[in-house]
Amino acid sequence: MTGRTSKRNHKSEEEVLAEGAQEMPFLTGLIIEPDILPRMALRQQLLQLGVTTIHEAENGEDGMAWLSSRGVDLVFSTWEPGGISGIEILRYLKGNGRTPRIPVVILDDGMAKPAVVTAVKEGIAGLIHKPPRLENTREVMESLLEQHALKKARKNNISS
Length: 160
Prior knowledge:
Blueprint: H1 13-23, E1 28-32, H2 36-48, E2 53-57, H3 60-69, E3 74-78, H4 86-95, E4 104-108, H5 113-122, E5 126-129, H6 134-159
Parallel strand pairs: 1-2, 1-3, 3-4, 4-5
Helix pairs in contact: 1-6
């Protein structure tokens, strides 16, 4: 989940880009968002942060079709992309034997807190407020990388 950005720690866009480009591994993402402006903004930010391949779906049904036929490393979905909700997409990925570890980040447009609580209980990996800002997107990506590193370290310790 993203936190608020304090003015004391505010970094320039150039600083954020320089740090992000060095830290983010190659990833494939899917953005499920009906509105073109936030979709384009998030796409640009993810590319700047090192995500190498980004696919887009304008609604939940197209997103589900993509997910059922192809693989991705990350999914970004709005609460209601059309046809299928972001929570339904999250449940599908968590309940599918080949995709339960794919992180799902919700693009939040100010929905009520109960929706956020439900998403957390269902296993949401992060939350980005719309319109997406580079620094917030970077914070979520860093959190995902930390979670991934911890899981990998635990797996290595168990198998050692």
